[in-house]
Design a protein that fits this description.
alpha/beta, Aspartate Aminotransferase, domain 1, 5-stranded mixed beta sheet, 7-stranded mixed beta sheet, binds pyridoxal-5'-phosphate
């Protein structure tokens, strides 16, 4: 306990010994001393705890956990996955630069590429994520300064050849940014495959309980991390301490949750093959997955993720009907919670596309997307069977 302060009673009650879990530091500001002034004047205040938009101990606890899961040098926490994506890209791109990005990306990321970045004078070029030759052609034709893709596409669950795209980026001195939300660091650590920055929606599997919106930016290059941190400070997408605590607490069980969800997803995929009314089952552990083989082994060497897609006979209307009859899985968008979530792209994640556009993007009618939780493979398989019956 420090000396009591007669004007601000309560501040002295800090534990003499370290607590088992990080305290939630709601304080927006911290007493300044010579060390903080030196950091503010010398490094723009990036390192010391003096104002919570710059640094906050609870937020640092969550960031340290993300970095540990990626075996990375550092992470920054953001107020959402989209804050992680937009802050990173706006830190790395200037007017006149070219961003070379996958065509298959999350809807709001797509809006950023189609609407917002071009309005800032950034040239955005798109390629088919799964055509490495197209990446190669586009890199040499457009000399991009940043390349962007998602480890696993939504909802096709196709894999990006991260090592190949990273080599192309290195060849022209560009940075590779990977959204690893669907794969998670349990299945893929993109920095170890050559990516420069990983962006993730912590909202999903990392926090894992469908109770907090948060994002993270992870890197091995500290200077690059500080470039992004400066923009996080000026754009203001910092994470709140309460949310940081929830993210931290969720991540404490990340590895056991993911082990179970990935195991269940593989088992459910197996159980659904040949089930009456099921036209196709897509899961990265399936031998008939289009990326099975060397690419899969390089990008997802162990567990193959907790996302699963089923294509049902009867198209989107029947899939919606089946969704409505589920008793265990919850009909809801998002993913990565302890509860199994089920949705159909046509009226949620991909509502703004026509049927033809969805077909062209490899999203057949009748597709149900499942994010497998912790109820157990047998329970979810039985739920799917009763809903389809
Ligand atoms: C792949 C992917 N990236 C980014 C995001 C955005 O995350 P958030 O909702 O935390 O901003 C999502 C959200 O669904 C997502 O699925």
């Amino acid at each position: 306990m420090s000396k009591p302060d007669p004007h601000r009673p309560g501040r002295e009650f800090v534990s003499r010994t370290p607590p088992a879990v990080p305290p939630i530091y709601l304080s927006t500001t911290f007493e300044l001393d010579d060390t903080s002034y030196a950091d503010i004047q010398g490094a723009g205040g990036l390192h010391e705890t003096w104002y919570s938009r710059f640094n906050n101990p609870t937020v640092h606890a969550a960031a340290a956990e993300v970095a540990r899961l990626h075996q990375a040098e550092g992470s920054l926490m953001t107020s959402s996955g989209m804050a992680a994506i937009s802050t990173t890209l706006l830190a790395l791109l200037r007017s006149g630069d070219t961003l070379l990005a996958s065509r298959q990306v999350y809807g709001d990321t797509d809006d950023l590429f189609v609407r917002d970045l071009p309005a800032l004078g950034i040239n955005v070029v798109r390629v088919d994520a799964f055509d490495t030759t197209a990446w190669e052609r586009a890199v040499s034709e457009h000399q991009p300064s940043v390349l962007y893709g998602e480890t696993l596409s939504n909802p096709q669950l196709r894999l990006l050849d991260i090592p190949a795209v990273a080599a192309l980026a290195r060849g022209v001195g560009a940075r590779l940014v990977i959204d690893n939300t669907f794969a998670t660091p349990f299945c893929t650590r993109p920095l170890q495959l050559g990516a420069d920055v990983v962006v993730e929606s912590v909202t999903k599997f990392l926090a894992g309980h469908s109770d907090v919106i948060a994002g993270a930016v992870t890197f091995d290059d500290r200077e690059l991390g500080e470039e992004i941190q400066r923009r996080l400070i000026t754009f203001g997408g910092c994470l709140d301490a309460h949310a940081a605590f929830l993210a931290w607490r969720g991540m404490r069980t990340f590895t056991v949750r993911l082990a179970e969800s990935c195991r269940s997803a593989s088992a459910i995929a197996e159980a659904m093959v040949g089930e009456p009314g099921v036209v196709h089952v897509r899961h990265p552990a399936r031998p008939d997955h289009p990326d099975a083989g060397a690419l899969m082994d390089a990008v997802m060497p162990g567990p193959r993720g907790a996302m699963l897609s089923l294509v049902l006979e009867g198209g989107d209307e029947r899939s919606l009907h089946v969704l409505r009859r589920l008793k265990v899985a919850l009909e809801a968008t998002s993913l990565g919670g302890v509860e199994t979530l089920a949705s159909v792209p046509f009226n949620s994640s991909h509502f703004n596309m026509t049927l033809q556009q969805r077909r062209d993007a490899g999203i057949p009618d009748g597709l149900i997307r499942l994010s497998i939780g912790l109820e157990g493979a047998g329970v979810i398989a039985a739920d799917l069977r009763q809903a389809m019956a």
